[in-house]
Structures are given as C-alpha cells and as structure tokens.
Amino acid sequence: MSSKLSLAQIITDCIQSSEQKRITFAEYMDLVLYHREYGYYSSHSCQIGFEGSDFFTSPSLSEDFGELLAEQFLQMWENLDRPRPFQLVEMGAGKGVLAAQILTYLKSHHPDFFEIIEYIIVEKSPQLRGEQQQRLEIFSIQWLDLQELHPGSIIGCFFSNELVDAFPVHQFILQNGKLQEIYVTFRTAPPNLKTQHSSQSLDIEILEFIEVIGEPSTPKLEEYLQLVGIDLTPNVYPEDYRSEINLAALDWLSIVANCLQRGYVLTIDYGYPATRYYHPRRSQGTLQCYYQHRYHDNPYIKVGEQDITTHVDFTALENWGKKCGLNPVGWTQQGLFLMALGLGDRIAALSYQQQSVSQLLKRREALHQLISPEGLGNFGVLVQSKGLTNTQSQLPLQGFITPVVF
C-alpha cells in the first residue's frame, strides 16, 4: 500500500473513531503535514529549494539572506551586553541552509561572536532533521524539541523563517450571522468510480474527504477574534465568509516566551495585520496548497504529497506576545529589513566584482527577488523582546531603521 493511501486510511480511522464522525480542519492539516511516517514534512514528499519541486525560500535564493540575518544577530548580542553564551534557536530549519549561511559567515567575519554562540535547532520532521545533521556536521549544534527547552533557559534569540504559515489552522465560516467551524469527514466513491491503485493493481475504494459545518469546537476561536479586534458582524461580512484561525501559533508563542529569559523573538513569514487578514473582501481566507511550484486551494487532494499553508496574522502574534511578556520591537517588510541591513550596498557592489556577466546577472536577480514587493520582499518581519533593561530596550535594531530606497 502506498504512503498516500496509508495516510488517507489513517485520517479516515481518526474520523471514524471520533464521536461525531468528523475532525476539525486543524486536526486534518496536522495529520497531512506532520504525521510521523507519512506526513508531508516527515516523508520524502517535502521538496524545498530550486532543487526541489514544490517551493523555494529566501535562503535557497541567496546566501546573502543568512549573512544579513547574522549581522542582525550580532547587533542583538551587542545590545544585550554580549552575554556568553548567546543562544540562537532556529525553529523549523528546513534543510539547514539558513543555519549554514549564518554560521559560515559569522565564523569568517565575526569569529569572537561565533565562538560564544550556542546554536539550537528545533525541528519536528525526522527527515528534515536528518538532512540538517548531514549539512551541518562541521558545526556544533544541538537538536531539541521545543518541549525540551526549560523555562527561562534561553538568553539570545528565537527565530524562524516561514514556520508559522505551516501551523495547522482551524477554518471557520459565517452562516446566518453566526460563527461556525468547518470540519472534515469522508465518503467513499460510488461503485462505478472505483479504480485500480498501487503497483499490485489492487481494487481499492476511492476515499473522498469532504467538509461539513458545525458549532465551533472550542470557545478559543471567538476569543482569538476578540484578541485581534475583529467583529464579524453580518452587516459588514458577507454570508459564507470563511477564513482561518491559527490557535497553534499562540500555543507556540506561549512556549517560546516562557523559555526566553532575555533577548529577542524574530519571526519572518508572509502575512498581514488582522485588519487586512480578515478584510470582508478576502472572503475565502488565505489557505494555499503548493505542489511542484504551483499553487491551488484544494487541501483534499494529493494527501501527504503537497504543502498546505496559510498567511500569518501578525496582529495575533504581537497582541498575544504582550500577554506572554513579549514587548513589540518592530514590524516591517522583508525588503525594507534587508535593505536596512545593507542589501542595497551588496547590490551596488556587484558592478565591481570580477565575475562573468551571466553570474552577475544571476546574483543580481536573486538579490532583487529577496526585496521584490511582489514576492519575498513583501514578507513580514516581526521582532519582540523580553527581559531587556530600559537602556537596552531603547537601543534600535539596524533592520528596523528605515533605509534609503536603492
């Protein structure tokens, strides 16, 4: 039996064993992406970067992304009066490319800082953890689960790049002015739609996952909307308006804030403030599925073989962070953030580098993609802090100094 069929059967079994023969979309998304054996991020289905087939990230475009982040971490260390060690906790490290860029650059350009760094990777996927360990074997790195970090044990920076967008989300819909939740159940195909599957050509019924509507599974959905200041009144929002609520992001941030004794939390992802995220005209939410560098909005096909993501509600992270003791430092776009850290100077310096024309053009294109307002440059960058003295909290971070437009 193929992994696709195995995962579909596992999800079906979960549905059958539930009291109402349905599961929340968040439970479905968690199984599809994170099942330890067959989930997208746990299997060889996950392909990241240009050598992959599904999507690419900023680190896979250019080493400059990691190098400029390294410069920001250096300033954070200096702002904190150079603690020893300075702990960098990367959450969701992909194939380890970003970690390699950061550590290689610091070893070469800031060896005093490199020597006192304690680099920790929090990675849920066994497959990706294995790839990270191979790529990063020359560095001293710890791999831990988030639950293995002790309260108040981190002095440094928690950071992530395109992590929160892949957390399982609850989906809701407005019907008759009431907040309702979208659940997942299944049905089998009619007999005339049965077909041949697997290399053994066994007759297998086609399982079709379908949505059903019901009362919210938890009052936390309403509480979330109150947290971000969204009132889904029927005279503003249309009938059947649907979107997502990322409760997992709040749980994650609670743990991070509890583990951070002193330092920063840096979150890079695509998303919006709540007023844009839940705009009445965005009536179908932000959920997208990625397969072979193409995207669509059907999460019920290619089960375990495609990525499923939603945009990040940065208002929720900021407001919940305050409740967890995190102070907002700044929020900006990735393009502005990288330009403030010196990306414009790197673009200008290309003209003086001894490379072939094709190499220069390729590198210039990669750098421009990092700041393009039509793509990666429009990502959000949120920094929060905890435990800083009054003097330290007043020290600006270079990435949030408005740059001169290049």
UniProtKB/TrEMBL annotation:
It comes from Cylindrospermopsis raciborskii CENA303. Keywords: Methyltransferase, Transferase. InterPro entries: NDUFAF7, NDUFAF7_sf, SAM-dependent_MTases_sf. One of its GO terms (biological process) is methylation. It comes from the Bacteria. Pfam families: Methyltransf_28 (PF02636). GO terms for molecular function: protein-arginine omega-N symmetric methyltransferase activity. This is SAM-dependent methyltransferase. Coiled coil: none annotated. The keyword Methyltransferase applies. Gene3D superfamilies: 3.40.50.12710.
